[in-house]
Amino acid sequence: MSEEISFLGVGDVLIDRAAPRTMFAHVAEVIRAADITFANCEQMYSDRRENPVSRHPSHSDPDNIDALEFAGFDVLSLANNHTMDWGESALVDTLSRLRDRGFRAVGAGVDITAARQPVCVEAKGVKVGFLAYGNTGPEAYAAGARNAGYAPVHAWTEYETLDRQAATPKLIRSGAEPAELASMADDIRALKETCHAVVVSFHWGIHFIPRVIPDYCHEMGRAAVDAGADLVLGTHPHILKGVETYRGKVIFYSTGNFALELGPAHLADRNAGPELEKLHKLYGVRPDPEYPTYPMHPESKASIIVKASISRGGIERVGYLPVHINRNAEPEIVGQLDPRGQEAFRYLRSVTESEELTCVFRWYGDEVVIDTSVSA
Predict the structure, then answer these.
(1) Which of 8, 32, 198, 272 is most solvent-facing, going by the fewest CB within 10 Å?
(2) What pTM, to 2 d.p., does this model score?
(3) Which residues in the chain belong to E strands, given as ranges?
(4) What's the DSSP call for residue 58?
């Protein structure tokens, strides 16, 4: 058997502080020790931001790139609903700055061809390919033949009234846009021909609400595996969602927040506070007042670092390191004997079981492994 390499993948990252490196003070040593690492970036890194497109754009000081370099990330997804917050010029500038610092950006580009371009990273002779797609941003955030943006796999939504009484909820149905889903599958099949393993990231789902996974996420995630993906990493919901083992491959429907904060620069935006309050009211979120820069659902304090061992034969083992988000919005790795580690373990197992997903978790020391022999 060929040599195995270590892979670590995390969820949403948005840094807004005077000393950016401190965000990763508790985890940088572990992340840097891995052979290949991945994160989803919830912000652009550019000073070309005079005319924000979004009503609540993420803070984008280029100095924040230093934190990602300090932490040791290799591959960064830009396929999310903040890709075009500051317009096309800022995205192009961000891509250039990341490239100059040695990062491999995936999921966004100057046009749709560039946005769908995969990244392949080699370590110790093992080639791991990456693709990233989004569907949660405004329509104008998707890349096209002549415009920059993220690689899209859009979804449709229908609402059905079952109980014809006032103010009753509707049944929500959703699915993937067929042509874009087919293009995604083509991308994956082509990448699998040149890499030993393929990791696909989706920025999808319903944010803030615990547990619920839309139908279209199941459709996209399973279609990715059917096309050859070896691991699927979901981002965007800002809270952990269930995990599914499908055809021996693992789909993380949401890896949650990893290093995300709304600090002084973001809150100085006069639109940010009111917009956030509207979202909290809409989704019933009551943030913990002891977390001033982390106005998220209290259950989102539990997070994970996805961990996999990969060889030329593909993914050999997959699981995660439990993480706790502290009061400074910083991630801390927590083990089996730490009550916070047990809390993260129980939470992820609970949200998996409540959605009737097939996945078996087991502690292995301070890590959690997934039994991929038990599969849907």
Answers:
(1) 32
(2) 0.97
(3) 5-14, 36-41, 75-77, 104-106, 108-109, 119-123, 126-134, 149-150, 155-160, 171-176, 197-203, 231-235, 243-246, 249-252, 257-260, 302-311, 314-325, 331-333, 361-364, 367-370
(4) P
| Dist CA 118 CA 187 (whole Å) | 8
| Strand, helix or coil for residue 136 | coil
Residue-level pLDDT at 261:
96
What pLDDT is attached to residue 50?
A: 72
Distance of CA 27 to the CA centre of its chain: 18
User: How far is it, in rounded angstroms, from Cα 81 to Cα 74?
Assistant: 21
Which parts of the chain register pLDDT below 50? none
Exposed/middle/buried for residue 361 (C-beta within 10 Å: 0-12, 13-18, 19+): middle
Which two structure tokens, joined as six digits, stand for 170? 């509707």
3-state secondary structure of 114: helix
Rounded CA separation 87/110 (Å): 11
Report pLDDT for 186.
98
Distances (CA, A) of 161 to 6, 170, 200: 48, 5, 35
Is the separation of the CB atoms in 136 and 176 below 8 Å? no
Q: Which two tokens stand for residue 195?
A: 């890499």
Q: How far apart are CA 217 and CA 224, in angstroms?
A: 11
Quote the pLDDT of residue 52.
81
Q: What is the pLDDT of residue 59?
A: 78
For 181-208, give the DSSP string.
HHHHHHHHHHHHTT-SEEEEEEE-S-SS
Measured between alpha carbons, how far is 341 from 141 in angstroms, rounded to an integer?
37
Beta pairing, strands 75-77 & 36-41: parallel
Up-side HSE of residue 47: CA atoms within 13 Å toward CB?
2
